[in-house]
Amino acid sequence: ILNVEQSPQSLHVQEGDSTNFTCSFPSSNFYALHWYRWETAKSPEALFVMTLNGDEKKKGQISATLNTKEGYSYLYIKGSQPEDSATYLCAFLPTSGTYKYIFGTGTRLKVLA
Amino acid sequence: DGGITQSPKYLFRKEGQNVTLSCEQNLNHDAMYWYRQDPGQGLRLIYYSQIVNDFQKGDIAEGYSVSREKKESFPLTVTSAQKNPTAFYLCASRPGQGGPYGYTFGSGTRLTVV
Fold first, then answer.
1. A91 at the B interface (CB within 8 A)?
2. Tens digit of pLDDT for each residue in A10-54?
3. Looking at beta carbons, which residues of chain A come within 8 Å of B108?
4. Could you write out the DSSP letters of every residue in A10-40?
């Protein structure tokens, strides 16, 4: 059974703090990793698609890195704002041919003003 | 604007009843998926369909049924055989079988058994 783990489960930070969280996935049979941002009462929204070892993607103050050899991805938020409060989900796609993503349980971020 | 529409947003079901959750997309995506979320757990795959008139069971298909008669539509029926149906249900789609494409998600249906 393939397992995807995210840590921490939840996080409270002050406005302006920088923060980061981790997604761990099986290091074999890697095909892609996705990060999603999920605000309460809204649809999960795609942040990044990561496919190559060493990938680094950036969107505004949010960036992500990927290490497929050791099986982890980091998501960084620089200078958190209250509107960054959301659950951040990662989803791992193995090269199993079925194209079924395996989701982590998410990191719930709360940015306090 | 293209997207996925799920309805209803909230649904209450009496024990022993079947209910159907709607999922419609206008993205021209081939593949559609149903996930369930329970507190403290990741999204778990119920059923998926990669093409019209074809679908496969996911990891927790027992007590659920689906159909894929049209490309745009992938309704999920929660049957009376589903022992613990109270949960949040998310529908998603992606362009097709190949490529590392991510999902486009609907906004979900919260089902409560009363």
1. yes
2. 999 999 999 999 999 998 889 999 999 999 888 999 999 999 888
3. 43
4. EEEEETT--EEEEEE--SSSEEEEEEEEE-T
